[in-house]
Specification:
The protein is mainly β. It has a single domain, classed as Ganglioside M2 Activator Protein, Chain: A (Distorted Sandwich). It contains 2 helices and 10 strands; from the N terminus they run βαββββββαβββ. The relative contact order is 0.33.
Length: 161
C-alpha cells in the first residue's frame, strides 16, 4: 500500500534532497548521509522545474520507506547560507534551526495518525523558495529521531540558487 503525504513546510522538502545537476545550468543540488541508514530510507525524489530559483514555485515527489513502526519522535532541520565576506573568508548565516514533533508534523501533513507503520510512502508538495533567500550556496542538515532518540534518517544537503 502506498500512502500520499502532502507536507506543507519547505523544510520537509530539504531533508530528502537527492543528487542532481541540471544540464548546462551550473546549479547543483546534492545530498549525503550523515549516519548509517536508519529505519527510514529515501528511495527516490523528483524535482520540477530544475534548477531551483528564488521566488519560483517547484514541486517534488519523494518515495520513502520505513522498516519499523515509528510511534513518536523529533525532526531537526538546520539550513544556513554561506556568505563570502573576503577572498578566503566566509560566515554562515542560519535561516532555519528548528525541532519539530515528528508525529504532530505527520498528522498535519498526511492526515494519518501515529504510529507510522512499516511501508512505502509517497510525499508530494508544491513549495515556493522564499524571496528572502539570496543567490549563493546553501547547506543543511536534517535528522529524524524516534521516541528513544534512535536515528531514523539523517542527510546533509548542499544546493545553490
Amino acid at each position: 500500500m502506498v500512502t500520499v503525504i502532502k507536507p506543507s513546510l519547505f523544510l520537509m522538502s530539504l531533508w530528502v534532497l537527492s543528487s542532481h545537476e541540471a544540464q548546462g545550468s551550473g546549479k547543483k543540488l546534492s545530498w549525503s548521509h550523515c549516519s548509517n541508514p536508519g529505519t527510514v530510507a529515501l528511495n527516490y525524489i523528483l524535482f520540477k522545474p530544475f534548477p531551483l530559483k528564488i521566488g519560483q514555485r517547484f514541486q517534488y515527489i519523494a518515495n520513502l520507506s520505513t522498516s519499523d513502526t515509528i510511534v513518536d519522535g523529533t525532526f531537526h532541520v538546520k539550513l544556513w547560507y554561506q556568505l563570502n565576506i573576503a577572498k578566503q573568508e566566509s560566515i554562515n548565516i542560519t535561516f532555519i534551526d528548528e525541532r519539530i514533533n515528528l508525529c504532530d508534523q505527520w498528522v498535519a501533513d498526511s492526515g494519518h495518525l501515529c504510529p507510522v507503520k512499516p511501508g512505502n510512502y509517497i510525499m508530494t508538495s508544491a513549495e515556493t523558495i522564499p524571496t528572502l533567500f539570496k543567490p549563493g550556496n546553501y547547506f543543511g542538515k536534517a535528522e529524524a529521531f524516534d521516541e528513544a532518540g534512535k536515528i531514523l534518517i539523517c542527510a546533509r544537503i548542499k544546493f545553490s540558487l
